Amino acid sequence: MSTVTTIAGQLDAKGLKIAIVATRFNDFIVDRLVGGAQDYLERHGLDTANITIVRIPGAFEMPLVCQKLVNSGKYDGVLALGAVIRGGTPHFDYVCAEASKGIAQAMMHSGVPIGFGLLTCDTIEQAIERAGSKGGNKGVEAAAAMLETIRVMEQL
């Protein structure tokens, strides 16, 4: 009988260095995502001195900034936190698609985990729900996914 090998990440942030990329656009939503993520990481052992918050204009700039951070060699992981809310033009579709693709490419090319916490909502009410009310806090979820992925990657 053979034994199955299981690799799983522990939710332990001790000793890590994390960058949080946060958009200023829709900052009343994004600030709640950042607060949730920061609280989560601190409760899981991350020293506040090891958190760097990078404020950027909007979601379209996220891929470039995330790429620069993951390629710097200074961070074990990056969190991408923002909120895009659909308007009356196709602008929403372009911004969301390019931001998502670019963030994924930065992660794939660098091998550094990026927590994806970019809300793409049809209404402001949906964004509020996902930033700490009845839909939970997607900043917390992105931080948890990033943390677990960091710890899995260390074992591979």
Q: Any idea of the CATH topology of the domain at 25-59 and 81-154?
A: Rossmann fold
Class per helix and strand makeup? alpha/beta
- Major sheet characteristics: 4 strands, parallel
Low-confidence region ranges: none
**Counting H and I runs of at least 4 residues, what is the number of helices?**
5
The number of strands is 6
- Terminal-residue CA separation: 24 Å
User: Could you give me the name of the CATH homologous superfamily of the domain at 25-59 and 81-154?
Assistant: Lumazine/riboflavin synthase
Mean pLDDT: 96
Describe the 3D structure.
- It is a single chain.
- By secondary structure, this protein is of the alpha/beta class.
- It has a domain at 25-59 and 81-154: Rossmann fold, CATH 3.40.50.
- The chain is 46% helix and 22% strand.
- It contains 5 helices and 6 strands, in the order E-H-E-H-E-H-E-H-E-E-H.
- The chain has helices spanning 27-43, 62-71, 91-110, 124-130, 138-155, and strands spanning 18-23, 51-56, 77-85, 114-121, 131-133, 136-137.
- Helix 1 links the parallel strand 1 (18-23) and strand 2 (51-56).
- The mean pLDDT is 96.
